Amino acid sequence: MKNLLLIIILAISSFAANAECRPDTAFKYNYLTGTSIKELTGRVIYTYNTAGNQTSYLVQNWQSATSTWQNSSQRIAVFNAAGFETEYTGQLWNTTSNTWVNDSRYSFVYDAANNILEQVYQTWVGGAWQGSTKYNYTYNAANKRTLEVLQYWNTTTNAWQNNNKTIVNYDAANNNVESITQGWDATAMAWNNNSRISRSYDANNRETEYVYQGWNNPGGWENSSRGTTTYNTGGARIGDLGYQWNLGSWVLTSRTTYTYNTDALITEYLYEQYDNSTMTLRNNFRTLTTYTASKQIETETGQSWELASNSWLNYSLRTRTYNSNGMLTVYLEQNWNASANSWVNDQGTTRTYNASNDVISWEFYGDWNATANYYNSHSYDEYRCTQIGVGINDLIPESEWNIYPNPVTAKAATIYVSKSTDYSITDLMGKVINEGSLDAGVNPIELNTASAGIYIIRIGAQVKKIVVE
Q1: How many C-beta atoms surround the C-beta of residue 457 within 10 A?
Q2: Which of 232-241, 269-278, 356-365, 428-437 has the lowest mean pLDDT?
């Protein structure tokens, strides 16, 4: 069974009996407020090269007065022979001259192992490309990133100027044991220490402790915070302890406990904070999770601890509904109304699928108007696609890289990669939502600026679609 909305777009070297839906056009609609009437507002047209890489997408707005399409923006990408993106350019449509105008450009340089060595971002200024930011990377023999340097373009000197860098050290098992960040002192023309994270691992290469330190010039490294993690005999994470450095010793500040059912699925996430007045840990918030018979998340209930009543109070509820094929059809977020003692709608999505379990429509609704009993924000996307063959050798192994959960909830996700690399997450219009570098292993990321919808994550030449709820 295909993972939800994990539409894989990659090089096609052979065709098999199974097929993937490769989106060619996405039509966008908005509902008239408080009604079931939707109006066409725009479309996105995608094109691909013979290897299946997405080489461009074109965004157009629907002009209802003239019943015509008007260009808005486009993104054009270039790939090397290995299928890695070496450049992509964003352009905006000038309605006065009826021509495309350059807006932004990213360029990438790789080594023989397809590790990214340089990433440059430029903007179009006065009829020419002008530097904005540049990242340079260095790797060890195991293709683990050991150095990241960020530079900004100095418009006064017309040259790249150092800003900060991160140095990473590894143990014999290629675990990240130390990350040091340094800032550039333009006056002294030297790097100054800023912060350091030291990590420890158990015999199974699971992180058991991290220590965060800040640089105190001239005193050296100074402790700031610390975290420890424990695991059960099955290797599942069962607890975290948080500490702050105070007057020469570590002081306990928080505890997180994970509870699992017999299927090894998390049923409770409990966060406790240290209460200085009672000198004990006390409840703060928790998330209770239930599952369907097929072990898919059904509900997630968020609760906060009220000291006055010494009890748990509801504050959020996320509910998922699936079709007979196990595909998510309805996702709904609600908030608790203490006065009415009931759940109140907040936002959600509805999906429909074709016979191959490819998403063909996506409905978004948010900003619930409790007085009028409707959503103030309501839109609808419809996808047209071409069925393309995908051979078994073309699929990206989960051991290579993966992002979870998908759909992404609580504006946070985790990316697993087998080796150091870079990633970018863009919306369907090409706007960069998040980007950066990944260490081999588990990497937490935040998507605080992403609204509910479909996004594209790129890691090297590999692309997946993810959902943010």
Answers
A1: 23
A2: 428-437
